[in-house]
Specification:
Elements: E1 5-11, E2 14-19, E3 23-31, E4 35-38, E5 44-47, E6 50-58, H1 65-75, H2 84-88, E7 93-101, H3 107-115, E8 119-120, E9 135-138, H4 141-152, E10 158-163
Antiparallel strand pairs: 1-2, 3-6, 3-7, 4-5, 6-9, 7-10, 8-9
Helix pairs in contact: 3-4
């Protein structure tokens, strides 16, 4: 199914479009210093300096508008804390985004594929499934970015890939 890519957004002086459709996304974030963060019901978690990939579903009513919401939380323009990722986002800088437009549930499959070669943050972002975690850590941006892109290639969906 083809989707229109017409939700414009800007980050770090890079303009990009987010599709109006639905699917799965992986947001890549940079954390510039070791930080202890209370992540809702998970309690206090230690996050190391490095790069994190958060994989989520955008199959609900708002579709990929969820990505825009995450970026607003990271930028400090949205203070709502609903999901685990909302507690980490304000401490990070978005560095990349990979989107797969699909009407099928591939969020867990993609998260597991990313977890094969990265460190999984156990329990993070997976309160509604049986995965070990949907947040992954890596010290090298290029390695993480390539791992995420490869994980999204497991489907025959339309991909949008951004590096900020």
């Amino acid at each position: 199914m083809l989707h229109e890519f017409n939700i414009a957004y800007m980050i770090n002086e890079h303009a990009f479009d987010v599709p109006e459709g639905k699917g799965t996304y992986s947001l890549i974030l940079a954390l510039d210093k070791d930080t202890d963060i209370t992540a809702g019901s998970l309690g206090v978690r230690h996050f190391h300096t490095g790069y994190y990939s958060y994989t989520g579903s955008a199959r609900g009513a708002g579709g990929f508008a969820r990505v825009i919401r995450h970026l607003a939380v990271a930028a400090g323009t949205n203070s709502t804390r609903h999901w685990h990722i909302d507690y980490l986002l304000p401490h990070t800088m978005p560095k990349g985004l990979v989107l797969s437009c699909a009407d099928i549930d591939i969020e867990c499959t993609i998260a597991k594929a990313i977890g094969h070669t990265t460190r999984t943050m156990n329990g993070f972002g997976c309160s509604d499934c049986r995965c070990s975690g949907h947040l992954h850590y890596e010290t090298d941006f290029e390695r993480l970015f390539n791992t995420v892109k490869d994980a999204h290639k497991i489907t025959d969906t339309i991909h949008k890939v951004y590096s900020f």
